[in-house]
Prior knowledge:
About 50% of the residues lie in helices and about 10% in strands. By secondary structure, it is α/β, with parallel strands linked by helices.
Amino acid sequence: MRITCVVVGEGSTEVYIQSVARALVTRYNPNVSLEFKPGEGIHFSNPPGSLAAKIQSAVDLYSPNLILVHRDSDSNDAQQISARFSEIEDACSGISGAKVPVVPVKETEAWMLADKGAILEVVGLECLPMAANREYPKWPETVQAKERLHEVFRQCRLASGWKPSRINTNADHRQIRAIVRDLARLESLPSFRVFKEKMQNALNTLTV
């Protein structure tokens, strides 16, 4: 079964949410395939306006069966996380079809940082060098994940002999958005487990 899907939310990291959603479907729903709009590896170019307006625009343009609505919590405070889910629920009011909130804590990069296999693939190493390991957090949701991810990339490149002037961690960041390698590690993150459950519930409604 093919399901048309749009990821609405926060810009270029939507490409990573596509990768994560595809990995989950491949693992747990092998008879389902996701067709992302506007295209594989291309994020939905959100128009100006409210989150509700962006969601309505996605519906008008692509008539998706499934909408993933992405908002980073920007905090690990429980009230702030709950507020994000409420914000998404309100924005989806009146929209038909399956909707899944995607709320990483604190940043989407916490999910990227959790996936050590993806980091190693980007930098072309079999294991993290000592300096990168020192920067690698046990609990990615408790740190400033975007900054930490870039520092892990930088330390990996330095350990591989790259000159500092050649290192472009922004390019590494763009590359990792398309890679998911360690779902087990991702599933150790509470916010990811919530997404996984809501994603599975949505797919169940679409495939019955």
